[in-house]
Design brief:
This protein has a single domain, classed as Growth Hormone, Chain: A, CATH 1.20.1250.20. The longest helix has 54 residues, at 345-398. It is globular, with a radius of gyration of 20 Å. The two termini are 25 Å apart. It has helices spanning 11-40, 45-77, 79-97, 103-117, 120-131, 137-149, 151-162, 168-187, 194-200, 216-227, 230-240, 243-249, 258-283, 286-304, 312-325, 329-337, 345-398. It has 412 residues and is mainly alpha-helical.
Length: 412
């Protein structure tokens, strides 16, 4: 009954969207201000590239570990408690980012910020999925992601506004922390999921992360849920974050700003994340919508790698197409949540996106780095993309359709 009373614009959806907005602002801020912030710390152009990649990897490891911690706590203690705690941690981390003076300090604080950021999306998607009617679940989670992902666009404009001065990047971090604490006040009126309340006092194993590995069917569902999203962080973590490096190798006639590349791609991602909800609704299929968006991403990547000698604006347009194609973030998290019972749903919905983010450090970048000595930077980027998409398509084929699935059950 609880689900039928809630409209698409209920407080849980709105607050979830705003929460994800702040989450994405803080998550992508480093990629946007990577160059000016590391230059301010005295690094050379070569060190900015290498040390920047290291900091991103450490941040992603924080997300990976945080995903497990917050996911387990989300099933053991409740979805709302995790949302509050994760917001406090990443807000404090963002503020601390504004005070770093060495690369090691930067890396440590980004790790801690990553730990905090790991709890926002999974807990929010779980809560919204359990509150909304099953027929409109995909639209609600698409709204959360579509509005939330525009946080990257806001981060870019904040960088433009304050980044002109040597220490302006510090102000960008302070703003992110302040937004997080403001968000805590909005969370007060949001109610806990009725599905979770129904098992809260029951003698049921809740938040048991190892349950995902003790059953072959559950393990397969879990791994394929993660691998479906490999293209997302290949595009964002390699092609767009280091678009300036790829542009120089393609003799692009002008300077490419990776911060702007992130901004335009995330503007497109936010549009894609809203539209994929309607496409899924139209076809009554999560899988069909994901196939469509994977194909769009491939088209954008192929275009990106053929822009030798073009202008920076063409690189940005390719980033728009790639970004739109990877606008399936909420859909793949929703699909993961729909495959598991209420007693481990938050664990899955929180760990899956962070495992996917962590795959940048554990899978994508290691493959990329291993191929660079023999193939070179540019060709290694292409081959890494081929490997990533083969794995993602196989995983999608192996995944069962979840549109309209009833979520009120537990895993034994």
């Amino acid at each position: 009954m609880e689900q039928k009373k809630l409209s698409l614009f209920n407080l849980a959806v709105i607050v979830g969207a705003l929460g994800y907005f702040v989450d994405i602002y803080d998550l992508l801020l480093f990629s946007i201000i990577r160059v000016p912030s590391l230059r301010s710390l005295g690094l050379s152009p070569e060190d900015i590239a290498s040390k920047g990649a290291r900091i991103i990897s450490i941040q992603m490891i924080g997300l990976l570990l945080g995903g497990i911690i917050w996911g387990v706590l989300g099933d053991k203690l409740g979805r709302l408690k995790v949302l509050f705690a994760s917001i406090i941690l990443y807000s404090l981390g963002s503020i601390a980012n504004g005070f770093v003076h060495t690369v090691d300090q930067y890396a440590i604080v980004r790790f801690l910020t990553g730990l905090g950021l790991a709890g926002e999306l999974g807990a929010g998607i779980t809560l919204v999925s359990e509150l909304m009617p099953k027929e409109r679940r995909g639209l609600a989670t698409a709204m959360v992601a579509g509005i939330g992902l525009s946080g990257a666009v806001f981060a870019y404009f904040i960088k433009v506004q304050f980044g002109a001065t040597p220490d302006g990047w510090r102000t960008c971090y302070f703003i992110g922390g302040g937004l997080g604490f403001l968000l805590l006040f909005l969370r007060i009126g949001v109610l806990e999921s009725g599905m979770y309340k129904s098992i809260e006092g029951a003698n049921v194993r809740k938040g048991n992360f190892f349950m995902l590995f003790t059953n072959g069917v559950r393990l397969k569902k879990y791994l394929t849920s993660i691998l479906i999203a490999l293209p997302n962080w290949y595009v964002i973590g390699v092609l767009i974050t280091f678009s300036d490096k790829f542009a120089s190798l393609m003799n692009v006639q002008g300077t490419v700003d990776p911060g702007k590349a992130v901004m335009v791609s995330y503007a497109a991602i936010s549009i894609g994340d809203v539209l994929i909800g309607f496409i899924s609704q139209w076809f009554k299929s999560r899988k069909v919508s994901l196939y469509i968006f994977h194909i769009i991403t491939i088209i954008g990547i192929l275009w990106f790698f053929t822009l030798q000698g073009q202008s920076p604006s063409m690189i940005y347009w390719a980033c728009v197409v790639m970004g739109f194609g990877t606008g399936f973030w909420a859909m793949f998290v929703t699909m993961a949540a729909e495959q598991f019972g209420t007693n481990i749903r938050a664990t899955v919905a929180t760990t899956v996106p962070n495992m996917a983010r962590g795959s940048l450090s554990l899978v994508v970048l290691p493959i990329f780095d291993a191929l660079k000595p023999s193939l070179g930077y540019f060709r290694a980027g292409e081959v890494t993309g081929i490997i990533v998409f083969i794995v993602a398509f196989i995983s999608l084929v192996m995944t069962k359709e979840t549109f309209g699935k009833d979520l009120d059950y537990i895993e034994q």
